[in-house]
Amino acid sequence: xxxxxxxxxxxxxxxxxxxxxxFNSIDDLIVKLQAQPFNSLHIxxxxxxxxxxxSFFRDIYPFEALKNDVLPMIQQQGNFALNIWCxxxxxxxxxxxxxxxxxxxxxxxxKENVKLIASDFSNKVLARARQGIYNNFEISRGLSxxxxxxxxxxxxxxxxxxxxxxxxxxxxxxxxxxxxxxMPAMDIIFMRNVLLYFDTETKKSxxxxxxxLLKSDGYLFMGGGETTIxxxxxxxxxxxxxxxxxxxxxxxxx
Length: 254
Fold this sequence. Notes:
alpha/beta, five-stranded parallel sheet, three-stranded antiparallel sheet
């Protein structure tokens, strides 16, 4: 499931788990995982492998496209009820960045008109995301001082995001490899910097589940090193400013 050039991650991150769980080696741990039904040990292994690298307004161009192109176009079409999904949201900086952007630049989109879902496989990072507390290093990455002062308040050694923004995000536990049946049709999907960890077949499997979920005029944003090209044929590449995103291929007119 891991891409071949990411196998070093298994050695790097599974070694501490193997030792803590009482195994003599990573190989012994893997044999145990393969022999058992999915359980808490599997969850610990996956959480150990996940790289929770994130920041506010990470790789700024998708957020500029959201502000300058996507949301204005959606509003012009008369769609004032938006469904946005941030997949593999880690500790919450991405969905909170989207929420802050909407609050800053589209105040007419009252929070009841925006359904902002953020999902991750790890319950540990979801618990952190729901708290909305970030340390000085995290708060300094991608967030301007003016936004920090407007939407966060100092709490001990950290910064607490205000309740209005926290309440805009619905955090959910979701494994991208399993069913997405509980998800509504989406106007915008952020699935950034997660597929790069998977092998080709797993990438294809995940991408083929997006078209039934994405609205016909919706937008898919992926990471800078990710693409749908040569994986699935359902999407057209679209450039908005300096950002690349994807929309569903238009069916030819009869």
